[in-house]
Structures are given as structure tokens and as C-alpha cells.
Amino acid sequence: MNVNSWRKLCVIALLTPAFHCLATPTPPDTLKITIEESEKIFLQNNLSILAAKYNIDANQALVKQAKLWDNPVLSTDQNIYDKQGGFFKHDQANGQVYVQVMQLIKTAGKRNKLAQLAQDNATISTAQFDDLVRTLRFALISDLYEIEHQLKIKRVYNAEINELQTLVGGMDEQLKAGNISVKDNIRIKALLFSLQNELINVAAQLIPLQSEVKLLLRNTDSSFILPVFNYYLPDLIKKEIPSKEELIQIAESNRPDAKIAHSQLDYANHNFIYQKALAKPDINIGTEYDQHSSYAPDYVGLAISFPLNFLNRNQGNIASAQFTIKQQQALYDGQVSQIENDINSAIAKVKFYQNIDNIQQLDFSRQYETVFQNMLKSYQQRQVSLLEFIDFADAYKDTKLKLLEQHTSLIKAMLELNYQAGKDVITLNK
């Protein structure tokens, strides 16, 4: 071993206790939370959801407004001064008073058709609210499962680090007794240092996850949010999922984006009907009183007015509404195709990871723990070399992490299938 390599190993040995302090900080206050509890807090506290609820209320208020009749219009005219009567002289011989009351009568059911458009907007806003909740809920649950995944990774590192720390303590005594070489002692400490450094990187992954979960839950304290799950992995591996046809039908009925596309198509059709109704003239009808300016004193008459729609029959808006229907139909068909593609992809992922993440791998993982303990004892008893032990320790860590990654990928695939279906078709927690 050259001088530079020897110096590096010595530095590693000196820094190992410092990294141990960084990798195992004093745990902060912990808030344990289940999926059900997190969803309840999320729905109550999330500001984005609260704002979306107000949008629904605003659109429902517009439905009520669209159903209201137009106010009658009062018009009046009277003299202030004239030479014959002076100021405010009103009698049978002097002055003039004119009063008219008019009411707009909308024809062709325009009021009901406008109310239907407002109701369509309210339905769209409700579906948009559901879509927001669906998206944020998926982000929340995914983050909680990812926190659990990172904590499992930490446990793998901590378990191996704890064993190596015990081994290092014993080797230090053996080094003092002259039973092992300095090189072997430093090599084990270098392995320990490497694991502790990787553990720090894992712990860093939890910081943004905790931040996002707290933002979704509107949690402002310093506690560490610890998700509590109750699932049994072998059951998930063997879990049967509904057929593709059934899942597509569920998605088309439950996914908010499908409801939005359908409601927008309904709006386009109802708008076409409304634009055709606007081509029909509305009628203003009312009564009027004229004191002196008419052919007879104290004249009372019936007033009716309506536009003659010879030039503008709303042709442009009607044509535009027709093209909008075609546009929305194409968008709706595209949304249906997107749903089918999403379901097919989600099913393929679940089945793929179910086939990979089989029961034999779980048995292998448990057996590997025993083999690691045996390997550790064999090294302590000088039955295997240092190089063999280090190679096995690296392989042990990598294998455990890959198994955890496969387990998490299966859970994420099932979460995605629930998300794509628009409802929980697979129950992960008992």
C-alpha cells in the first residue's frame, strides 16, 4: 500500500465517529399518522381544496342568478316649469305627466337554457374540484409510502452499520493485542465510513418529502411525520385485479377528468341550443300613462316592442357553436382513449411487479439475513478473508436495497392503478 492510500484510510478512520453523529441524529418529535387520518386532515386543512370549494359555491350562485327574471323598467317624464302653470303645476288643465312600465319577456326558453349553461359550468367546477382532490390525494399517499420506503432503507443501513460498529470495536481490541493488522482494521472502518456516508444521503431524501407532506396537510410544527401502514406484502403479490374492461368502465364513470370532458361536451351542445334561441326576438311589454300629450287626456295604453331580426339572426354564433361541438367531441374521444391507455399501462405495471416481486424473493430476503450473521461470525473467527467479507457486505446491502425497491415499485404501481381508475380498486391497507 502506498503512502497516499495509507493516509486516506487514516483520515477515514478519524472521520468515522463524526459521520456517525451526523447519520444518527437525535430524533425529533414524531407524529404517527395512518392513511385514513392523513386523508381526513388533508380534506379539512388543504388551502387549495378550500379555494376550489369556494369556486363551486360561486358557480352554484350563478345558476340561481341565471334563473331570475329581468327587472321591470320604469320610465317617467313630467314638467318642472311652464309659463301657463308655473312650477310643478299638475291638474286637469295644466302640466304633463308620462309614466311607462316595461317588462322584458325572453322567448324560446332563453332563461332556462341560460340556466342550463350555468349548471353545466357548476358541474364542470365540481369535477375540477374532484380532480384537484384526486391529484393532491395521490401526491400525499405517494409521498407517505415513499417516506416509509426511505425509512426502510435507513433501517438496512443502520442494521449493517450497527453490526460493523460492534465489529470495529472488537477489532480495535484485537489490534491492541497485535492479533490483526492495521490495514485490516482501517479497511473495515473505511467500509463503515462508506455506509454512514450513504446513510446521510438517504436521510437527506426525507427532507423534501416531509416538507411536501406537511404542506399538503398544512402542518406547521417541527414534528416528524411517520406514516403507519397495515399491509401484508405476500397478499399484495397475490392480489387479483379487475379485468381491463371493468377497470375502463370504472374509470370512465369515476375519473373527474372524464366527467370534465363529458360536461364540456354537454356545455357545447347546450350552448348551440341557446345560440339558436337567441335568434328569436325577445319582447318588451308594458303599460303607459300620458296626462296631456296624447290625442286624449289621461291616456292609458299598452306598449309592445321587439326587434325585427332581418339582418342579424345570430348566424355567426350559431355556426361557432356547431364547430365547438365538433371540437369538444374530438377532445372527449381523445380523453376516452387516454383513459384506456392509462388503464392498460397501469395494469401492465402491476402484473409486471407482481411477477417479479414473488414470494420466493421474500423467503430469500429472510435467509440472507441469516447468511449475513453467519458471514460476520466467520470473519470474526478468521474463517473467511477480509476481502471476502467486504465483498459479501456490499452484495448484502445492494441485494436488500434492490428488494426494497421492487417492493416499493409494486406498491406504487397499485397506487397508480387506483389513481388511473378514479377509485380504490385495490385495497392496500387492511
From TrEMBL:
Any Pfam family: OEP
Keyword tRNA processing recorded: no
DNA repair keyword on record: no
Superkingdom of the organism of origin: Bacteria
Signal peptide positions (record): 1-23
GO MF assignments: efflux transmembrane transporter activity
Alphabetic keyword roster: Signal
PANTHER family in UniProt: OUTER MEMBRANE CATION EFFLUX PROTEIN, OUTER MEMBRANE EFFLUX PROTEIN
Family (UniProt): Belongs to the outer membrane factor (OMF) (TC 1.B.17) family.
The protein's name in its UniProt record: TolC family protein
Organism this protein belongs to: Ginsengibacter hankyongi
